Structures are given as structure tokens and as C-alpha cells.
Amino acid sequence: MKAKEVRNLDAAALQQQLMNWQAEYFAVREAIRTGKEKNHARLGYLRRDIARAQTVLNVSATKNLHSSAA
Fold first, then answer.
1. Whole domain around residue 22: which residue ranges?
2. I want to staple 9 with a disulfide (CB 3.0 to 4.6 A). Which of 3, 14, 31, 54 is the partner?
3. What is the pTM of this model?
4. pLDDT for 25-67, tens place per residue?
5. CA 6 to chain centre
């Protein structure tokens, strides 16, 4: 998912998508370990999607913190 698409999601939807990506990452990692999955690049894509979602959540939380303190 592109960063622009991630930024357009609301916080609840983004949190849900993050949990889905984390579960999928774990499943793909286990599938690779057992030899059922051959696409190792999928781990990289999932890891980057997880990082994007966490970054957007942290930035929005920081904005909310700073705007309420001012």
C-alpha cells in the first residue's frame, strides 16, 4: 500500500490494517521457514507496510499531542 493511501485511512482502520499486516508477516515468515512459501520478497513489502502504518500513527499522535498542549 502506498504512503498516500495509508495517510488517507482513519486511525481505527489504520490500526486494524496494521494488525492484519503483522499477522500476515508472521504467517509468511512461518511459511518460508517450513518451505511452503518461496516468495521471500513478500516479507520486505510487509515490513515496509507495517513501518508506514506505524509512522503515520505516531505522527498523528504527535500532532494531536502538540495541538492540545498549545
1. 7-69
2. 14
3. 0.87
4. 999 999 999 999 999 999 999 999 999 999 999 998 888 878 8
5. 9
User: What is the number of structural domains in the chain?
Assistant: 1
- Residue appearing with cell numbers 500476515: 24
Domain annotation covers residue 1: no
DSSP summary character for residue 35: T
| Neighbouring residues of 17: CB distance < 8 A, sequence distance ≥ 6 | 1, 6, 9, 53
Helices 11-34, 41-69: axis angle to 10 degrees equals 150
User: What sign has the CA pseudo-torsion 53, 55, 58, 60?
Assistant: negative
Residue 26 lies in a domain: yes
Residue type, 40: H
